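**Protein fold record**
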Amino acid sequence: MRFLYLLILSAIILAGCSAKPAAQSELAPALAATSKPTPNVGEGRLIPITTPKGEFQVWTKKVGDNPTMKVLLLHGGPGNTHEIYEVFEKHFPDAGIEFYYYDQLGSYFSDQPDIPELWQTARFVEEVEQVRQALDLDKDNFYLFGQSWGGILAMEYALKYQDNLKGLIISNMMASIPAYNDYAAEVMEGGIDPVILAEIKAFEAAEDYQNPRYFELLIEHHYVDHVLRMPSAEWPDAVNRGFEHTNPLVYVLMQGPSELGASGVLLDWDRTADIHKITVPTLVIGAVHDTMDPKHMEWMSQEIPNARFALMPNGSHLSQYDDEANFFPAVIDFIKDVDAGKVP
């Protein structure tokens, strides 16, 4: 959540970064995956999935080989891409962990049908289950990692299909959108200069989300503090590509256009009363500077019976980049501990 995927490329340009060639950035949202360029991580595999609106294909890519530790990565957005996880390739192979990049339906390297009825959480859960089956993942080896929107999807999958899981990782995501909106209003907005906040709110009240000044304010007073804690001109290329390739048709419908709270299909999503039903070994990751409340995420780890909590002291919403030194040891240790039979 809290990624202005629809508009962030323009903000990066304003901050001094260069844009991608028009041949990529101007592709129509409805183009099929087969028309896309090869991902930076190399050729992958297209998996057919069945939906209430027909059959489509989603892109995946396997990295590494381990019969007992296989991790499927669920990206955020909704509508972002696997590209924000390219940093995992620096860490998982050396740890002997097999993992899978995966673009959900509607995301850049998968099919992008313009069918609003498909952008529902329950439909995405069934997609993940079909991908799991196609990849031959099961309770003896299957770890599910979800960050931001991917964390919502991971929780929903676990609540329905946890018998298929060996372990679950919920990263940078609260169990309630209403609670997230409250935290955004009370803490995130409270940390912005009142004059600046009033200007941001004025743009939002006018629904002037594409105003260059709106971009500038968000970058300077929100993103570099709570989304990725480094100057925007230094953001990794993988992150910039992920933002550029985001599908706004999915993002805006589900998350809404504002960066100061959710307002789309996910507005009333709340699983605080249900997460205690998740019994598989679980790691919950929070970050001190995140857009998500780290105390809420610690509480989640206490509600889930077999869970542990990892707090990233230097991290924000993309902790795999701005607190890499703490993020990956926490994730790798958890996966290996579960593999060794050590319940958190």
Q: What stands out?
A: The CA atoms of residues 23 and 144 lie 34 Å apart. The radius of gyration is 19 Å. DSSP finds twelve helices and eight strands in the chain.
